[in-house]
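cache lookup: miss for this entity combination. No prior model stored, computing from scratch. Input as submitted by user K.M.:
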Amino acid sequence: MNFKDKFAGESGEKAERDELQALGADEVLNAELNAELEPALDEALRNFRLSVHAWSEAVLSRPQKVLVASPHKRLARLAVGWALGGVLVASGVSAGVWQHHRQEMKIAAMRAAERERPVAQQQKQQARVEDEDLLANVDSDVSREVPAAMEPLAQLTAEDGTK
Amino acid sequence: MATGEEISAEEFSAVVIKHRPHIFRFLLASTRDVDLAEGLTQECFLKAHRNWASFRGESTAMTWLMRIAINLQKDHWRNRRMQFWRQTRTNAVDLGEASEWLSSGESSAEQQLLARERVKQVWKAVEGLSERQRTVFLLRYVEESELSEIARTTGLSEGTVKAHLSRALARVRAELGGKR
C-alpha cells in the first residue's frame, strides 16, 4: 500500500472528486483561500503559529536527559554486585559443607550402631541364658522346698504330669 | 545527498539536525503531547534511516520525512483506538497550557490576555477538526507549507487539500466568533 492509499483510506480519486464537489467548486475555494483573511483571524492564526514555535523551541532547547552512570556509581554498583555474588557463593558452599557434615555424622552413627549390634546381641543372649539358668534353679529349689504338709499334693501333680 | 542508497552516519546526522525541529513541531501541534511527539519524532528518523535506500529523491527529504511522521501519527491513533480496552495514559496538555507559550512582546497585559484567549480558541477549533483537516491546517498555518507541497506530503490532490483547508478555516472562524 503506498502512502496515498494509506492516507486516503478507502476514498480513491473518485471519492476525492465527489468530496470536492460536495464541498464546493475549485474556483470558489481558490477565491476563498487566496483572499486576504480577516484581520482578527489572520492575527489569531499568526499568534497560534508563534505559540507553537515557541513551545516547540522551548522543549527542544531544554537540556536533554542522558543517562550515563558516573564512575563512582559504577564502581559502587560493581562492588555491591561482587559482594552479593560472594555472599551467594559462600552461602552455597557452607550449605554444601553442612549437608556433607550431616551425612558424615549419619554414616558414622550407622557404623557405630552396626559395630555395637553383635555386642548387644551377645549381651542379650547372655542375659537370656542367665535367666533360663535362674528359672531352672528356682524350679529345682522350689520343688525341693515344698513343705511337708504339701508333699502329697506335689506328688499328685507329679503323677498327673507323668500321665 | 545520497538517495536510493545507504546513507553515512554523518550525512544522516545532518538530515536530523536540519529537519528534526520541523517534524517535532508538527507532531507536537498534532498531539499536544511532548513525550508522544518526542517518541514519534525519534521513530520517524529511525524509520527514515532504515528505509533511506527507498528514498529516491523525487520529493524533498522534508516532504518524505513529513509523510513518515504523518503515517506514524495515524498508526499511533489507530493502535490506540484498537486497544481501547487497555488503560492508556495521555500526557496531552490542556488547551490553556498550550496557549501559554505566546510571547508577551510589547503589548499590554490586556492585549496579551486577549491574544492568548484567541490562541486557545484556535487550539479548540483544531481539536475538533478531522484528522485530515487538522493535518492540512497545521501544515499550512504552522509549517507555512505551500498547497502544492501539502498535496505532495499528504498524497491528496491539491483540490482536496483546498477543500479541507476551507473547512478547517470555517471551523476556526466559527470558534473565533466570526462568520461561518
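stored under new cache key. The CA atoms of residues 55 and 98 of chain B lie 35 Å apart.
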